[in-house]
Design a protein that fits this description.
The protein is mostly beta strands. 7% of the residues lie in helices and 48% in strands. A five-stranded mixed β-barrel has the order 1-3-4-6-5. β5 and β6 form a beta hairpin.
Length: 146
C-alpha cells in the first residue's frame, strides 16, 4: 500500500535564512516560516494563532534562498515532513520535526533582498508560474500571474 508525506506551506519568514555549507561541501539553508490561522469566536471577537515551521532547503535552492530572501518575505514551500533526534547540552535526546523542501517559490516583494519576484526550485519543479527557475541561474521576463 502506498503512502504520502507531503507538506505545503504559504507563510512569511520570521528571520533571514541561515545558510551554511556542510563538511561535504553541500549548501543548506534553514528557514523559519510563520503561518497564521484567523477566525471569529462565538463572542464575535477576532482570534489568531500563529504556527512556526522549521524548513530545511538544500543545494542551489538553498543558495538562492540566502541570496533573495529576507525576514518578512512570503514564500510557498513544498516538501516532506521529517523527524530527527539530537543530544541537547544536558545530554538529553530531543526530537524535532522539520519540513525538508523540494521547492521554494518566492512570493510578494516585501522583505526580500531582490527587487523582483523569483523562484528557487528543487527537483520537484515549482508552483504558480513565478519568474524563472533560479536553480538554472537565470530569470525570464514573463510577468508574474498573481
Amino acid at each position: 500500500m502506498a503512502s504520502v508525506n507531503k507538506v505545503i506551506l504559504i507563510g512569511h519568514l520570521g528571520a533571514d535564512p541561515e545558510v551554511r555549507t556542510t563538511q561535504g561541501g553541500q549548501t543548506v539553508a534553514s528557514l523559519r516560516i510563520a503561518t497564521t490561522d484567523a477566525w471569529t469566536d462565538k463572542g464575535g471577537g477576532r482570534q489568531e494563532r500563529t504556527e512556526w515551521h522549521s524548513v530545511t532547503v538544500w543545494g542551489k535552492t538553498a543558495e538562492n534562498c540566502g541570496r533573495f530572501l529576507a525576514k518578512g518575505r512570503q514564500v510557498y514551500v513544498e516538501g516532506r515532513l521529517q523527524s530527527r533526534e539530537y543530544q541537547d547540552k544536558e545530554g538529553q535526546t530531543r526530537k524535532v520535526w522539520e519540513v525538508v523542501a523540494d521547492a521554494v517559490t518566492f512570493l510578494g516583494g516585501e522583505g526580500g533582498k531582490g527587487e523582483r519576484q523569483a523562484s528557487a526550485h528543487g527537483a520537484g519543479g515549482g508552483w504558480g508560474g513565478a519568474t524563472g527557475n533560479t536553480s538554472k541561474g537565470g530569470y525570464d521576463d514573463d510577468p508574474i500571474p498573481f
